[in-house]
Amino acid sequence: MQQFKSGNYINQGYYKSFQPTLINKQWELNDMELLQLLSKADRYLGRLDMYSEHIPDIDLFISMHVLKEATQSSKIEGTHTNMEEALLDKENVSQEKKDDWEEVQNYIAAMHQAIEKLKKLPFSSRLIKETHKTLLQGVRGEHKLPGVFRTSQNWIGGASINDATFIPPVHTSINELMSDLENFAHNNEVYFPDLLKIAIIHYQFETIHPFLDGNGRVGRLLITLYLVDKEILKKPILYLSDFFERNKTLYYDNLMKARTENNIVQWLKFFLVGVIETAQKGVQTFDAILKLKQNTELSIQNLGIRANNAQKIIHYLFKHPMIEVNKVVEITGVSKRTGYHLIDDLEKLKILKEITGSKRDKLYVFSSYLNLFK
After folding, report:
1. What is the pTM of this model?
2. Mean pLDDT (whole number) for 287-298
3. What pLDDT digit, counting tens, does each position of 28-73 carry?
4. Domains of the chain by range and CATH?
5. How far, in whole angstroms, is CA 268 from its chain's centroid?
6. What is the DSSP string of 256-318?
7. Which of 45, 153, 257, 316 has its CA 20 to 30 A from that of 144?
C-alpha cells in the first residue's frame, strides 16, 4: 500500500489529464490500523447480513433502504428531493421538482434492475453501462450518452476545464482502464479482501469517470452491486451514500489525496469506517422496524372486524409509507366510504398522519416508519 502510485498527469496542450495506473495487480497489506478496521467492518457486515435473514418480508424494507439511498446519492450531486417527495406519484409532484423527482426514481429503477440482472450478468462494464442507461433515461443527462462511455474529455469542479479541480483520463484510454477494473473485480488468482477490493474499484471508477454524467451515482451503486455479486450480502441492504453525504468534504478530499499524494490507505480507512457505521445503523434500523411492526400489529387488533383490512394496509405501508384513499380501496376491496373509515381508524391509532391539509385528494404518511430511515 505504501508503494502505491496513483498515476501521472499527461499534457494535453492547454490542460493536463490524469492517467491512473492499472489496479489489477498484487496488493500488499501491511498497515495494522487498516487490518483492524477491515476485521471490524467484516464483523459488522456479517451481523447485518445475519440480521436480515431473520426479518420477515425483508424485501418490503429493502425498498425503503433503496429509496433512502436514491435520495442521498442524488443529494450529493445537487438533486434536492426528500423521502416524502420521492414517495409521491408523478401527478402530485410540483413542476419545479419534477426533474429532481425523476432522477431519484431513475436511481431506484437502476438499482432494482441491476440487482435483477446480476442473476444473469456478471459484475462488468456491460452491467455498468446498462445501469447508467436506466439512470439517465429521460432526465437532465439524457443528451449525455446514456449507457455509453464518453467520447470526449470531461472534468470535475470548475466552470470550465481551465479551472477544473480534477481532469480524468482521455477518452481513448477508458476501455483499457475499465477492462482492467473488471479483471481486478474477478481476479481470483491474487487474494485480496473484497471490502478493500470494492473500495479500490470505487476509487478507480470515480478517477476514470467513464461517463459524461452520472459517474458519482453509478460509482456508489457499484458498491452494493459488488457486495451482492460476491455474496458478502445476501440482500442489497448496505448503502454508503448517506455516510458519504454527511462526510462529503472528507469523501472528496480522501479520493483526491489518493490521486495527488498516492495515499490510498487513508481512502481505504475512510471507506471501512463508512461500512462499519452504516452496518451498525442498519442493524439498529432493522431492530426498530421489528419493534414498530410488532406494536403496530398489536394496536390494530382492537379494530375488531376491520382489523383484517387494516392489516392489509399496514403490509402495504411497510413497503410504501404514503397512501391515499383510492389505494386503500384497491388494497382492501372495500368501498370508498369504508376506506375513509379505515384511514380514520389508523389516524386515531397514530399510525397514519395527514400531510396535505387539503379537503380533497388527501395524502397520509406512516411517519413513525419513515422516520426510522432519516
Report:
1. 0.91
2. 93
3. 998 999 999 999 999 999 999 988 887 777 877 788 888 888 888 8
4. 53-262 (1.10.3290.10), 286-373 (1.10.10.10)
5. 19
6. HHHHHH--HHHHHHHHHHHHHHHHHHHHHHHHHHHHHHHHHHHHHGGGGGGHHHHHHHHHHHT
7. 257
